[in-house]
């Protein structure tokens, strides 16, 4: 059961975007597992991908196509098989899929971006995808966001989608995004796929910068278990069909709405994290710089001992302190460090707080939403990481995933 | 149940070393939880300690005393309370304990090294220790190694001790060591305590160098869960009472025996890792340098997804590949990488091996002792990490540890 998360019951269409999903029987039976997203000609499309050196074939191809394309038109996404660890044969499979979409969609090969998510190390049965492409093209529709959100799921227990609308100078700008992912979620994303589209007009170079910034604050600030996937991808699309152009006056408003959608999608992944019973924010403040703060936040968020204590609702704050102490940063000044669990002061200037009682700690730990706040008092930078606890169900899900 | 581990039924006394253990009721009832180790005057003593910035009070004091002492005489070790995260009060507690041992043992304060292991963040009831010191001094005996091995245990399910004897020029040199630790075991050791003594004569400066080298190859090559404790300590003692002096001729033999004892003690911790059902060696070979190899080995050894696959005996090697790919090293050349599970070839020069069958992988995974061998083909360096799988029992033990 996701923590404090009610899946969206409808998602707004975005002008210039059409979607289709279908059953291709790649691994799953009796459910959609193949999705095509079409963006109108002239759209800007930017992507951020996994930093895993052993990245999947489709990730390599996405990077190439984004470099050479004169405009992305199609995204083709399968679930059930990651097409990772599949060598040259995997590259060929992804190429064949792109070629079929390009032919049916009447565009160049490099106008197609391929994505795969699922089991690593098995060859992708590309022919099952290729043969469905004509039917996908046929059934493209602006109202298919919800169906796409469900088709891209793997171990997710709920679909994840968010829509927002803004009024700008009398025009409506729509933003709709979907994401999938519930495990292997880590620093630079992990078996996480997310697609967010807006009908605002945003220049390619600006969209790329926005995409990077938002990723740092949202999808790259989540952690379930420290594992980074071979396939993580986030794609931001701007069709311009609303007629509203991003400019100095409206940019804060539009970027902030894009960021909100991505934050909700990123948090939804954590709320639906494998076996999660808590939603945990680790916030590190007053640090010398952002990376310093984030390293500490990640070290706490990744600690299996902290995560099992959270699962047990045990205010065993010694484990938090031990995790902070082993963070890979130089010169942590413990004597300046202050630590809160929710509103409860645990450590003040490096010393156990006199005011602390086990009852206070227990009350904070009993909550479903927990904030661990580390105040370093050695600078102005801050960073946060959203994470979950580590439960029996995590082991069950991951020990049984392939069977 | 530890993996392939039969605890020693006896441990050899080491000339010049006497030990005593006693019930002090610090946290546990009806068991020894306080130990004193005495080394004869003129012994060399070297130590390696946690790199955790939030290190425990006794670790800080150990470091100071090793700097200023004219010769360590006593080690005092309690289990049940780590005296970590305890601020100034914790420092005072550890000081008071050392002062009492120094008075009863008739030596300077800085001839005493204090150690604590157990729950973090609770003040140490130092008076329970202080009042037992006279009785400890009274009962010191060379034959108490086994009792000490048991008294330092916390979540360990078995005691850990190893003895070895060498003949050198007609003289017998004895090495005996004990260790404790079964969780939080990570890179630079973790709630791991180990004490190894020999009656060979080794100069202080030489012993310090040997201590560092052995630590890198043994105690700093184990990983259970990525958490580094506030209290980890390894102490190597040489009394010289055998009459055998370390020299050019015998040094390989003596150092190799010391290293073997430490390797057995380090591996025993992994074999008894919380919830472990497998003993896993991750070996990275033909790397550009040692640190490069070790980073990759640790990334694989720490991956919760790899560890749950090991628990499930699932030859889901894609997870191993994904972990290698996200290791924090520069320029991994995937196209040169070869990967074995035991003797079974999985990946050859970056491509899935044609010879591989799921049956082969399954057969390797079904074993209790598993070796993951990563051959980078980009240098001459190699490193290994010993680790365990991640099971339901890990969660149970760590969710319930304080209750």
TrEMBL record, chains A, B:
GO terms for biological process: L-arginine biosynthetic process; ornithine biosynthetic process. Keywords: Acyltransferase, Amino-acid biosynthesis, Arginine biosynthesis, Autocatalytic cleavage, Cytoplasm, Multifunctional enzyme, Transferase. Its EC number is 2.3.1.35, 2.3.1.1. It is found in: Cytoplasm. Substrate binds at residues 154, 180, 191, 274, 398, 403. The active site is at residue 191. The record marks 117-118 as: Involved in the stabilization of negative charge on the oxyanion by the formation of the oxyanion hole. One of its GO terms (cellular component) is cytoplasm. Its main location: cytoplasm. Pathway: Amino-acid biosynthesis; L-arginine biosynthesis; N(2)-acetyl-L-ornithine from L-glutamate: step 1/4; Amino-acid biosynthesis; L-arginine biosynthesis; L-ornithine and N-acetyl-L-glutamate from L-glutamate and N(2)-acetyl-L-ornithine (cyclic): step 1/1. The record marks 190-191 as: Cleavage. It catalyses: L-glutamate + acetyl-CoA = N-acetyl-L-glutamate + CoA + H(+); N(2)-acetyl-L-ornithine + L-glutamate = N-acetyl-L-glutamate + L-ornithine. GO terms for molecular function: L-glutamate N-acetyltransferase activity; L-glutamate N-acetyltransferase activity, acting on acetyl-L-ornithine as donor. Heterotetramer of two alpha and two beta chains. Catalyzes two activities which are involved in the cyclic version of arginine biosynthesis: the synthesis of N-acetylglutamate from glutamate and acetyl-CoA as the acetyl donor, and of ornithine by transacetylation between N(2)-acetylornithine and glutamate. Belongs to the ArgJ family. NCBIfam families: ArgJ, PRK05388.1. This is Arginine biosynthesis bifunctional protein ArgJ. The lineage of its organism: Bacteria, Pseudomonadati, Pseudomonadota, Gammaproteobacteria, Thiotrichales. The gene is argJ.
